[in-house]
Amino acid sequence: MTLRLADIIESLAGKAQAELVGDPNFQIERLSTLEASGPLDLAFLSHPRYLGQLSQSAAGCVVVAPSAREAAMQRGACIVVADPYHYFALITQLWKQTHFPLPAAQVHPSASIDPQAVLGPNVSVGAFACIGPGAIIGEGARIAEHCVIGANAVIGADTRLSARVTVAHACRIGERCIIHPGAVIGADGFGFAPHDGQWVKIEQLGAVRIGNDVEIGANTCIDRGALQDTVLEDGVKLDNLVQIGHNVRIGKHTAMAGCAGVAGSATIGAHCTVGGGAIVLGHLRLADGVNVSAASTVTRSILKPGHYTGLFPIDDNAAWEKNAATLKQLSALRERLKQTEKSLLQLQGRLEEKP
């Protein structure tokens, strides 16, 4: 299982312009890191801080930025490109397409497909999958084993659902999406009305709408809306074990790391990032370009782009609110204290100067 350097350059020419320095017929057997590479491996250098590892690497070829071109040439073959990390991502896609191609489309005889469902050309349906009435599966879509597609749900062209994915009734997934094992899209949102000491269920009458080129991690749950739809726009990326509450809206190309949670009716802008384990409380709004650090809790709307961090221990709520309010004044209090100390020292000096 090898790939020629010339084939890599040629195959990716339409996506990124790269310069090959070295033998175009050199055969790559593996993709690897700088540290772990062998003489038949292809590695990449994406950040100048790792430049010191370059000369020590045994990689047969390294993908580097123009700034590292001379250093890379001194050690051997290299591919010079403006964004090495992006180019290496493209190489991984090419490698998978070349060495692990998708099998021919087929519908397994154990699959249950309602007569009113519509399957486009070249759709693949795995063993024991279930597709409900009125569901529409787009051309080239892949529905793996034990998936459940509810009534009137829509799966876009070339979208891939891994094993045990559930897409509930009336939910819509766009084109070229990737849904990893165990994800649940369109379960009821957490909606209950308190009455006489009990919880009365509020039926969740909305759905989930997911755009194109979205990727959703394993065992992630996206709840359907109560009245309006929960929406994920194009290019959103969700890691494993992410919880998206009902009526949430997530803007284009926002990414969330594992175990993040977004409570109901929050709105998150485009090109945001939410670190692992972070929480966004309900009904809040995050502007475009907001980056939330891991394990932070967002308790207020953030209307300006930037990097935000919030860690605070749990406490009695009244005490927590008082401490949180005080904490916001800490910097100003520090400056006042420094000024007071300075004034006291000056006063002390004047007193000592007196006879």
Largest beta-sheet characterization = 10 strands, parallel
CATH topology of the largest domain: UDP N-Acetylglucosamine Acyltransferase, domain 1
CATH class annotation of the largest domain: Mainly Beta
CATH-scheme architecture of the largest domain: 3 Solenoid
Radius of gyration: 27 Å
Distance between the termini: 92 Å
How many structural domains are formed by the residues?
A: 3
Label the structural class. alpha/beta
Q: How many β-strands, per DSSP? A: 38
Summarize this, please?
The protein has six helices and 38 strands. Strand 6, helix 3 (69-75) and strand 7 (77-81) form a beta-alpha-beta unit. The longest helix is centred in the last third of the chain and has 24 residues, at 330-353.
Mind explaining what this structure looks like?
The chain has 355 residues and is α/β, with parallel strands linked by helices. The protein has three domains: 3-99, MurE/MurF, N-terminal domain (Udp-n-acetylmuramoylalanyl-d-glutamate--2,6- Diaminopimelate Ligase, Chain: A, domain 1, 3-Layer(aba) Sandwich), CATH 3.40.1390; 112-308, 3 Solenoid (UDP N-Acetylglucosamine Acyltransferase, domain 1); 317-353. Strand 5 (41-44), helix 2 and strand 6 (61-64) form a beta-alpha-beta unit. The termini are far apart.
Write the layout of secondary structure elements.
Elements lengths: L2 E2 H7 L6 E4 L5 E2 L1 E2 L9 E4 L6 H4 L6 E4 L4 H7 L1 E5 L2 H16 L12 E2 L4 E2 L4 E2 L4 E2 L4 E2 L4 E2 L4 E2 L4 E2 L4 E2 L4 E2 L4 E2 L4 E2 L4 E4 L4 E4 L2 E4 L6 E3 L4 E2 L4 E3 L6 E3 L4 E2 L4 E2 L4 E2 L4 E2 L4 E2 L4 E2 L4 E2 L4 E2 L4 E2 L3 E3 L4 E2 L7 E3 L8 H12 L1 H24 L2
Parallel strand pairs: 4-5, 5-6, 6-7, 8-11, 9-12, 10-13, 11-14, 12-15, 13-16, 14-17, 15-18, 16-19, 17-20, 18-23, 19-24, 20-25, 23-26, 24-27, 25-28, 26-29, 27-30, 28-31, 29-32, 30-33, 31-34, 32-35, 33-36, 34-37, 36-38
Antiparallel strand pairs: 1-3, 2-7, 21-22
